Amino acid sequence: MSTAISPSVSVIITAHNAAGTITDAIKSALAEPETAEVIVVDDASGDDTVAVAKAAGEGDARLVVITCAVNGGPAAARNRALAVAKGDFVAVLDADDFLMPGRFTRLLAIPDADMMADNILFIAESASPGDLPPVPKITPAVIDIDLAGFVRANHSVRGSNRQEWGFLKPVIRCSFLQDNGLHYDDALRLGEDYDLYVRMLRKGARFRVSTQVGYAARWRSDSLSSRHSTADLKALYGAAQAHLDFDGLDDTAHAALAHHANELHRRFLLRDFLDRRARLGRAGALISASRHPATLLPIARGILADKLAARRPAPISRIGRLLIDQG
After folding, report:
1. pLDDT tens for residues 291-306?
2. Does some domain include residue 110?
3. Is residue 111 part of a domain?
4. N or C: which end of the chain has fewer CB within 10 A?
């Protein structure tokens, strides 16, 4: 009697100056029995990330460490790993996060899916796998996500309950990527996961998400977008514009993508104006902006929204909270 072979997972960890956290990431990935390999791509770190990563493997032959001479960003680094990945599935793990035990067993049991993700527990920067906050109770369920629903869940409309499902870290079927010629966009240093998921969904990927918790993400008080440049935001806006050119979009999906692109455009215009104000002074920035009158209203609205936001109480900490909150 033959024994079925369990699907294998290639875990991709891209790292830049992650010596302080990458050990937890690597050890948690190697602890999963479905892990065929852990591919660490060091993106030209200036610290001891490479040495720490190799030590974390404790001689496990499944650990592969690739070094980049020049920092190309997470998308380019992930593409280097995808090019050599041997598993049936690939799973991205950020270098400052870690997996919770049994994650791959639970995700690979989800049927009829090309992308299987699960709930995320946000933890403090100082937290470790042995020092987690209590996991909030949640009813186990599997949610099917289509293109429009995924895009809407990433809108950042002020006052709304933004779900930010671009944070999701799905286990992805490698054959789907290969059959459709898909990979990360090397030009993106912001929103690279969101962009890939959108293009996968457009190609018909079946995206299913479990409400059960399997991924721990260290949460920083400063937002990710605040650490990116105006050029990064412009590149993401360019990708959002390209999404609108997909053939055969239904009205619901097109409306969601258009809303998201417009939102990114407003954010870019404001960031670009603030850059010019820092460089040219307030008067110079206003003169420059006045050459394109259509940009003045979005800029004014963005400045006003930021001023109002500064007066509001600080947002509730995400530490100990879930990405998918049923409450």
Report:
1. 666 665 556 665 656 5
2. no
3. no
4. N
Dump pLDDT digits (tens) for 252-265.
Answer: 999 999 999 999 99
Answer whether residue 86 is part of any domain. yes
Q: Which domain holds residue 24?
A: 1-97
Residue 199, C-beta contacts closer than 8 angstroms, at least 6 positions apart:
182, 243
Which CATH number characterizes residue 1's domain?
Answer: 3.90.550.10
For residue 303 the two structure tokens come to: 């400045």
**Domain-embedded: residue 15:** yes
